[in-house]
Write a structure and sequence with these properties.
Chain lengths: ~220, ~190
């Protein structure tokens, strides 16, 4: 056996906190633990806006079937984010690109295939876009804190990528709820309002993960 | 949980990690003894200052201690510890960069930021290596600088032998192109 021993300072630091720890659950199981969050965004968010804004017309019910699919896609993306956050388990460039491409393609396919052509007065186009973004972000920005906290328990080597994946996952889950309230099938509306909200969440997720990682590093250094 | 396809050494490391997660102090010592040299070699490729390398090794094991719950048995231990080492190195480089921005005359920190010394060729090579993507740089360094076999690299990084060879070969090609471009530019 080698005669290499722990340096005294390192030994002291380890001895100060050598308690048993439970290994993190598999990424899929951790993502599944966020199912209640997905359900809250899927059902709670539209219910809240129906109640608070006195919305009387919901999306035609056959199209609701796609919303749980979008929630499931969001959970899969979150599982990938949790995996990405563990050292040595980072996704390859190809897997990452494929995951993001498939998630966006799924989002577009679901929204464009199930949307109804709505005759939107030109003066309300911008207002509808703004409303959709506000309705989504009001719920999804606080919701983003939960996966971000779960990620911060690991040690992501690419915090921006991990955070962006969290944003994408939460964005898909919140869009699943939003499309029950808004079934405007205009390309511009789907891309700018619904897609824009998801892109915003990705950016926010990336920024918050980077900030959190730097704070953690600074905390350890001091 | 079992890991039937793992080498005896990898299985041993996994058992030690599990013991470590249960709070076994002896397991920490054994892990350090088994992995210290590998981690040291990893950092030696990025930084020639022995003192800084030693600090980075200690930081890696300290971070390993803080993040020990992120290891999931029966996954291989080496890719995980090298992942932590990458994180520590990136953090150290960022800290050195910040420091350099704050005080340009801080000699100690600049040793980390510009680890390679004198000869212009060595500087070019190091710059070219640092521009390689992580996925190809590591197999290349482990094979061409530290002399590990592709089989051993594959085991360390948790990839197939073919993938290790392919990544190393891509890195060699990228370095050839980068260095010939640099040389032409100097002319």
């Amino acid at each position: 056996m080698s005669a290499v021993h722990l340096p005294p300072a390192l030994r002291a630091a380890i001895d100060a906190d050598l308690r048993p720890v439970r290994p993190l659950a598999r990424p899929g199981r951790r993502a599944l633990a966020l199912l209640p969050l997905g359900i809250a965004l899927l059902i709670g968010m539209p219910a809240f806006w129906v109640w608070s804004r006195h919305i009387t017309a919901l999306a035609p019910w056959p199209w609701w079937g796609f919303s749980p699919l979008e929630t499931a896609a969001g959970l899969i993306v979150l599982a990938a984010a949790f995996r990405e956050a563990v050292p040595g388990r980072e996704l390859s460039g190809i897997a990452l690109s494929a995951l993001v491409a498939v998630a966006w393609a799924g989002f577009l396919a679901i929204n464009l295939a199930s949307a109804v052509a709505v005759d939107v007065p030109s003066e309300t186009v911008v207002r509808w876009i703004r409303d959709c973004i506000v309705m989504t972000t009001t719920f999804s920005v606080p919701a983003l804190a939960i996966p971000a906290w779960l990620v911060s328990r690991a040690l992501p080597n690419r915090p921006a990528v991990t955070g962006a994946l969290c944003g994408l996952g939460v964005g898909l889950m919140s869009d699943a709820g939003l499309r029950m309230l808004c079934w405007n099938g205009e390309y511009v509306h789907v891309l700018v309002a619904h897609g824009g909200a998801i892109a915003m969440l990705m950016a926010l997720g990336a920024a918050s993960a980077v900030t959190m990682q730097r704070r953690k590093a600074r905390g350890h250094a001091s | 949980m079992t890991a039937p396809d793992r080498s005896p050494e990898e299985r041993h490391l996994m058992e030690l990690m599990v013991a470590y997660q249960r709070g076994d102090r002896a397991a920490v010592e054994r892990l350090y003894a088994l992995l210290c040299n590998d981690v040291q070699s990893y950092f030696a490729g990025a930084c020639r200052d022995r003192r800084v390398t030693d600090d980075l090794v200690q930081d890696t094991f300290l971070e390993m201690h803080r993040s020990r719950q992120t290891y999931s048995p029966p996954l291989p231990v080496r890719p995980w510890i090298f992942g932590i080492a990458r994180n520590v190195l990136a953090r150290a480089r960022r800290a050195a960069k910040d420091q350099r921005l704050q005080s340009s005359d801080d000699v100690e920190e600049s040793a980390l930021a510009t680890p390679c010394t004198p000869a212009i060729d060595a500087v070019d090579l190091e710059n070219a290596i640092s521009r390689l993507p992580n996925t190809t740089r590591e197999p290349w360094l482990l094979h061409h600088v530290f002399g590990f076999s592709f089989h051993s690299i594959a085991e360390r990084l948790g990839i197939t032998v073919m993938a290790a060879k392919l990544r190393s070969s891509r890195a060699s090609r990228a370095l050839r192109i980068a260095l010939s471009t640099d040389t032409e530019r100097q002319r």
